[in-house]
Design brief:
mainly alpha, UraD-like, two-stranded antiparallel ribbon, about 5% strand, single chain, 3-stranded antiparallel beta sheet
């Protein structure tokens, strides 16, 4: 059994894909206790972040933008931040001002829903928690097949994975319904959708770091 630190309140069990049972279970199987994904680098306020050196700043924001530390590195130069909202705006401005190739690379840093990264145990703790909350690590066979097909078709069409801010969805069924709708969009629409969804993902992760209750 592999355990995350107690600060994350997440217990990882084993890496399996069981297709003989009634449900398909993907690594990691997540048990929740207490607050979901409480961050190790919890701060009292944004002033503490402003006072940090570059390494400290990046350590606190590690994981906020999926596998893309360059976003926080660019935002560091814009300190001080008056509020968490202004920090969020700075991070998103760095993404919007990035080249198209950088943005596509950022999109591709995100895991598919119940995809290869989940099966291989390669998701970040943040993505693990976000997918686990909706039961995307424990799907029916039908859901797993549909998501696998949608993941493949979406990537073939757009060249990056479907990105959704899972915190905005009450159930995995609502995510799947949105996936079905968005796959019919054109590329520019989905690039815009990906950026707006990343903005919501980043907002949620910042809220957890700074202990802000979801509104």
């Amino acid at each position: 059994m592999l355990n995350f630190s107690a600060a994350h309140d997440v217990e990882i069990i084993t890496s399996i894909v069981d297709r003989d049972c009634a449900t398909t279970r993907l690594w990691p199987l997540v048990r929740w206790s207490g607050d979901m994904l409480r961050m190790d680098h919890r701060l009292q306020d944004v002033e503490s972040l402003n006072a940090a050196d570059c390494d400290g700043f990046l350590s606190v924001l590690n994981g906020v933008v999926e596998h893309s530390p360059w976003v926080a590195e660019r935002a560091f130069a814009q300190r001080p931040f008056a509020t968490i909202a202004s920090l969020h705006s700075a991070l998103m401005q760095c993404i919007k001002e990035a080249s198209r190739a950088e943005r596509i690379a950022l999109f591709n840093a995100h895991p598919e829903l119940a995809g290869r990264e989940a099966v291989e145990g390669a998701m970040t703790p943040e993505s693990t928690g976000e997918q686990g909350r909706l039961g995307l690590t424990s799907l029916s066979h039908e859901e797993f097949r549909e998501l696998s097909d949608l993941n493949r078709l979406y990537r073939e069409k757009f060249g990056f994975p479907f990105i959704a801010a899972l915190r905005l969805h009450p159930t995995r069924q609502s995510v799947i319904a949105t996936f079905r709708e968005r796959i019919d969009n054109d590329s520019e629409t989905e690039i815009a959708n990906a950026i707006s969804q990343i903005a919501e993902i980043v907002r949620g992760r910042l809220d957890r770091i700074f202990g802000i209750e979801a509104g």
